[in-house]
Specification:
Number of helices: 18
Number of strands: 26
Strand content: 15-25%
Largest sheet: 8 strands, mixed
Distance between the termini: 67 Å
Shape: rod-shaped
Radius of gyration: 46 Å
Number of domains: 3
């Protein structure tokens, strides 16, 4: 069966990883991470938006309560605070304090003030099936100047969304922030209208406020009851001018801080449990825990910015676009990992992609978009890692395939060169058959049969192995690739698996140098064997340079890298030629006969002396072959000069 392409494996892995991450995200398994990433954007990056605020806060502090000597405020105290604030000319005043029951004294005065000044707005807690809620001040009942103070908290108590409307039965309530914003916008002629294309959606100014459905941004099946939008906090905190009761009584609040503004009166004292965790808390828990009145201020200001400045609530992508975005990052991760290479480059690529993903999310947030970052980061890192692992496994397979063919038959230097240039040898893990100009060398022993008859099997094999090992080392040292053993014969190739036109003469010279070195080794071995009383042997060498077919033969279980063709046969016939003088085992000067073809002799003529033996008929070769005997190396030019 043909091996599956690693490219197809990578493509399959991209699809599977994108599907798995998309499924994990759709099931909410990444929601807590995505919400944390969102909080980091809000707290660490900020919106980059700057515009004058329409809201001023009057927050009753812990020291204010201690100075009053009582809590809650009685009706007279609340009356006096409201009179002092109204005297400074605000557009509207929102009282973020529940006042469903009278707190004597001063009840009548407070009722008269609430009923008579249309700038005052109160709060209620909207009823739900499990709770009757908290009614508004009786004087404001049915006045149209009441808003619910309910806030939406995610798991962990973090307020990231704002409410505009709530419904219970036939009754629909307005949010406290919406009532205050509409009071501020009244003079600008802005009022809520139905969106012309989707009448169930509210439009303020030029912006339609699309209600959340529960799966926007990092949310998965969030409770989207009522009419909710993402709450776009202003930064940096506290974002609004804030004063306390002592400032009001001491006259330290300038009229311009309140004139024409919305004033929200609330409580910041720790003893009054009206604090909410916001996204800012992810970096500083204390600073990010805001008084409820301050959260209402952010919600109110957002609506005013929507109407007057066209500043939309945070927008999100559809599920299909988010999945495409995730798939893009996974795909890019696989491509990057495929070319990562060494560990240091892998680390740089992985880090660069992470920084880019975060930078895109930051830029999108400042432009008013909440786009996913966590699944993309996970997909990127996993894809880069998995791709690198797949590539490493592929390279290991290729290396094993190459080394199984070459490692035992070439020098470490040649093996390294083969691995570095593996693209020229392999395709889809298979060795490519090619036609190359190669110098082929054959050797054979003369006197081998006599030695085999003199020795017992075990000593004979030791003798033969010592001979083969010595010759193999010489061949590898000269850059040859050992092709085959055949009894006492050896076949080696020079110029495989790479052969460049400018290297052909050099390959031929190395083959001759190798043959001469083989003769030297044989002389040494003969001396050693003679000292042990064994017979000497001689060597025949045949060398020819020409085009051959290079590739693998055999089965998957046993594969061999070799050369085949007419020119290989010619080299073999030169080695076995009987019609010219044979080597003499007893003469060290002539115990190695080296015969080469005219093609090889011409390539090495400048380096070696040769003798033209004439034309010969070689078995299997149709035309006569001119044969040359190598005598030895030519002296170097400087040696002539010295002489």
């Amino acid at each position: 069966m043909r091996q599956r392409s690693p490219l197809w494996l990578a493509l399959l892995a991209v699809v599977l990883l994108a599907v798995l991450l998309g499924a994990a995200r759709q099931q909410g398994q990444l929601q807590f991470l995505e919400l944390a990433a969102y909080d980091l954007l809000v707290a660490g990056v900020g919106s980059g938006f700057s515009a004058p605020s329409a809201v001023t806060l009057l927050l009753i502090s812990e020291s204010d309560i201690q100075g009053l000597g009582n809590w809650p405020l009685n009706d007279q105290q609340l009356h006096d605070i409201l009179r002092a604030v109204l005297a400074l000319g605000p557009k509207a005043v929102g009282v973020d304090i529940y006042r469903d029951l009278a707190v004597p004294p001063g009840g009548e005065r407070l009722r008269t003030l609430l009923d008579g000044d249309p700038r005052i707005f109160g709060i209620e807690k909207f009823p739900d099936p499990g709770s009757p809620g908290v009614p508004p001040p009786p004087a404001l009942l049915d006045s149209g100047r009441v808003g619910f103070s309910d806030l939406v908290s995610d798991s962990g108590g973090v307020v990231r969304r704002g409410l505009l409307f709530l419904s219970q039965g036939d009754r629909t309530g307005y949010a406290f922030s919406l009532q205050l914003a509409l009071a501020y916008l009244k003079d600008a002629g802005v009022r809520p209208v139905a969106d012309p294309e989707e009448p169930s959606h509210m439009r303020l100014g030029e912006v339609t406020l699309v209600p959340l459905e529960g799966n926007e941004g990092g949310y998965v099946d969030a409770d989207a009851g009522g009419y909710q939008t993402l709450l776009r906090y202003r930064d940096p905190l506290p974002a609004f001018p804030a004063y306390n009761l002592h400032d009001l009584r001491a006259g330290r609040i300038a009229a311009e801080a309140i004139r024409g503004k919305l004033v929200i009166i609330g409580v910041s004292a720790d003893s009054v449990k009206d604090h909410f965790t916001t996204p800012f808390a992810i970096l500083d828990q204390r600073a990010g825990t805001l008084a409820g009145s301050l959260v209402h201020a952010h919600a109110t200001q957002q609506l005013i910015d929507v109407a007057l400045l066209g500043r939309r609530p945070l927008q999100t992508w559809s599920d299909s676009i988010e999945l495409a975005w995730l798939s893009t990052w996974v795909g890019l991760g696989f491509l990057a990992g495929w070319f990562a290479g060494p560990l240091w480059r892998f680390a740089i690529i992985a880090l660069s992609g992470t920084v880019l993903a975060v930078a895109i999310a930051v830029g999108a947030y400042q432009l008013g978009w909440w786009i996913p970052v966590v699944p993309n980061l996970i997909g990127w890192v996993l894809a880069v890692t998995l791709s690198s692992v797949l590539l490493a496994a592929q390279r290991r397979r290729e290396q094993q395939a190459l080394m199984s063919l070459f490692s035992r038959h070439v020098s470490p230097e040649v093996a390294g060169a083969i691995w570095r240039r593996r693209e020229e040898v392999l395709r889809d893990g298979r060795v490519l058959p090619r036609t190359l100009t190669v110098t082929t060398l054959f050797t054979d022993l003369q006197g081998f049969t006599q030695v085999s008859e003199q020795l017992e099997p075990e000593p004979f094999m030791r003798w033969l192995n010592s001979y083969m090992a010595a010759l193999t080392d010489v061949i590898m040292e000269h850059g040859g690739v050992l092709d085959d053993y055949a009894g006492d014969g050896i076949k080696a190739n020079f110029g495989v698996p790479f052969s460049e036109p400018g290297e052909i003469a050099g390959q031929a010279r190395r083959s001759i140098e190798c043959a001469l070195a083989l003769g030297d080794v044989l002389t040494r071995l003969n001396r050693e064997w003679a000292s042990k009383g064994r017979s000497s042997v001689a060597m025949r060498v045949g060398i020819h340079t020409g085009l051959v077919v290079v590739g693998t033969v055999g089965s998957r279980a046993r594969m061999k890298y070799t050369t085949v063709g007419r020119n290989v046969n010619l080299a073999a016939r030169l080695e076995g030629l009987r019609d010219c003088p044979s080597p003499n085992p007893d003469d060290e000067r002539s115990n190695c006969r080296i015969l080469v073809s005219a093609a090889t002799a011409e390539l090495v003529a400048d380096a070696f002396e040769s003798h033209d033996l004439g034309l010969f008929d070689l078995k299997g070769i149709t035309e006569k072959t001119q044969v040359f005997a190598i005598i030895g190396s030519k002296p170097k030019e400087h040696e002539h000069a010295d002489a």
